[in-house]
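User: Can you help me understand a structure? I only have the sequence.
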Amino acid sequence: MFDLVVLGGGPAGYTGAIRAAKLGMSVALVEKSELGGTCLNRGCIPTKVLLHSSQLFESRDSWADMGISAENVTVDENLIYARKESVTSSLRAGIEMLIKANKIAYYNAFGKIIDKNHILAGEETLETKYILIATGSSPARLPIDGIENALTSDDVLSAPVEGNKIAIIGGGVIGMEFAGYFAGIGKEVTVIEAMDRITPMMSKEISIQLGQVLKKSGVTILTSSKVLSIKKDGVIIENKGTETEITADCVIVAIGRKPNIDGIGLEEAGVEKDRFIKADDNMMTSVSNIYAAGDCNGKLQLAHFAEASAIKAVSHMAGKECGVDLSVCPSCIYTSPEVASVGAKEGAKQGKFLLGSNGRSIINGVNRGFVKIIADEEDTVIGAELFGSNVTEMIGELALAVKNKLKVADIADTIHAHPTVHESIMEAAEDIYGLATNKK
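Assistant: Let's start by predicting it. Here is the structure, written out as tokens:
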């Protein structure tokens, strides 16, 4: 008998399994496909590999200003995808080593809950004290005519897309990152978004600035547009009562994700669900020894949130204190420039610093972007929003500030290294007091 059986080997699954093993629990992990889940195999990691190559290629326009001359620079998508496979394989091997090192029993099979204490892993029945459901999610598809003619993110990340004209349905994180990739390697891109702006989960300022950058790179953005049907050679949309046909060699649907919870035995175990599995703040479901973490519970579909929610769940099972605050979770978009945010988007006070005044940004040839810190009336940091090159590497400090309810002065009075883009965080904090060095 195991202390814990985990269904799913993605960020929530393998993180939960490893943490449980480190807490002294006997653990089994059941995964029907590859370890690493969507994030490693069909999501975060492969997308960023593609974007890195695309952004390097796109940067060639600025090489001359840096004193570098090169002719006939080309892009080879087959080599980009080969590198993507190499990166994901290497990381997957690392997870496999961790599973072995922590003496976790691994079953490469489909897992189904028989009852609250038994799971069928392929043909083998496992008995367990606790169950952690971490089955993740899959690309959602629109219930419209011709959907079979469209590709999902899984399709895009499995092999290079044919054709030069790309239509992307969805202006959220996935759609914007794909738009950046295809535009960066020279393809003609049209983004179709039902809302009145792209990235509606971010502030309006971010939506406007990101839209301007993408349009400058050649991306056509059609907002407030409803997709009526998808054809093999394009999309028919409706905008303000007018039907328009958008021609495309390839149509990609990037409208979000749905949970992988069908056929895993929720009904047999009595686990309550609606569209997602219902779980409380400790990830406990309606059945006290069954927990659900990651995308399958619908709280927030981000890999780092999935990992944190699994740690929260396993700690609760083991009766251990857990300091993870799931209400404070950074969100990132890996376009060029990047977007990063955490916490509140509005507050009583705001400090802002433009990266065009930052020495390191200018050295790097980047003069667009900003760091914004949001505080309440008592100068407690409650949120932040960043737009610029590599800002996803900077959001951690601000997440730490929000989680620990730091004051603006805690950031402003901390020496930040110079010259770094990172020091813009200090400048934004100082701006709340009207003391930013590079502001009049």
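Now, to help you interpret it: The chain has 13 helices and 21 strands. The mean pLDDT is 96. Let me know which part you'd like to focus on.
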